[in-house]
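To fix ideas, we now present one chain and its tokenised fold:
***
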Amino acid sequence: MQRNEWLARLDALVVFRGLLDTPLLRALRGALTADEAALGGAVAAFEAVLFAQNTNWTDALLDAALEDENLCLRLAAGGDAGPVLETALESELDFLQALGRAGLDDVCHGAPEYLPRWRVTPDADFHAAYAARRAAVGQKGYGIFARHHVFTLENGRLAPVRYPDPQRLDELPGYEREREKILANTRALLEGRPANNVLLYGDAGTGKSSTVKAIANEYAPEGLRLIEVKKNQLYQIPALMDSLAKNPLKFILFIDDLSFAANDDNFAALKAILEGSVGGRSHNVAVYATSNRRHLVKESMTDRTGDDLHASDTRQELMSLSARFGLTVTFQQPDKVRYEAILLELARQYGVQMPSDQLYIKGEAFALRAGGRSPRVAKQFIELLKGGVQL
């Protein structure tokens, strides 16, 4: 094909229309539309984008196609999208395969000899690769969900976290029994079984937030994605859940350090989200929240002794939010035995060499100075030892 023919086919993409917005295909289109005088520079600009990803053009284009959030996937979540779109999909894969197998001189006739020639894989099968990815869309995802597994909400839109906390479950000693309940609930979510919203309640520094992040990292290959939602963004959750409803992946909406004042508008918003709104709960989304308050709402003695004629009803209203979490897991401050076990395991992980009796004595003294025992305090102590700080 000549350059104008490649360009015409590229511009005619329907199912894979989103590829035209990627830096790679925008740069290629620039090379295909360049006149003879500007061809060298346009090809060089394309190759700069390409080589930043891969010197193999076939692999780079195939990766872009596999991760594209296209019409077929959005409409059918990996299943059959109907004869019209399925036929278009097959035709466009034929074109992308031909384009991906083409070298520089096949795509841009007359490209200067001094430009590098990208590598290709002549026998690459785009149809087979796409069929395999489509079958595994429930684990791999598509679009930004294929490239990232942790997200935040920014101005109502999902923004990927490019460098998420790498916390792993096996790095969190001391609360295995508590954690197993949350793991079982998460596995139920991933397997499509009924799963509860979860409240992780307890003392500061006991690993509540770290547990949720570690679970997200552990199960990301199985199709789990984590979306962190701030308290002032709770009103955005219904629209977010609607947008995720047909997605084949499973999602945890993570609300960290949750608590409310009694007159907080967000209180009612979260109640409706957890249970009680006209919209049913999405099968692929669960809310995981952490809090240092068992009932989530700040309550004073004035609230109990004020002039409310129906004080018991008011208290029930304040307590009703935490009751809407189907699973509540308590992370209590560790006792001496558990704290020592945490110290010992963290010392092993960090390669800290110290007799256990000395480790316990120094670790206990450090905890007293830090305000009390907790896994966070134990980790800080071990990291200081690893760093060579004299304690």
In short: The chain is about 50% helix and 10% strand. Residues 340 and 361 are 9 Å apart (CA to CA).
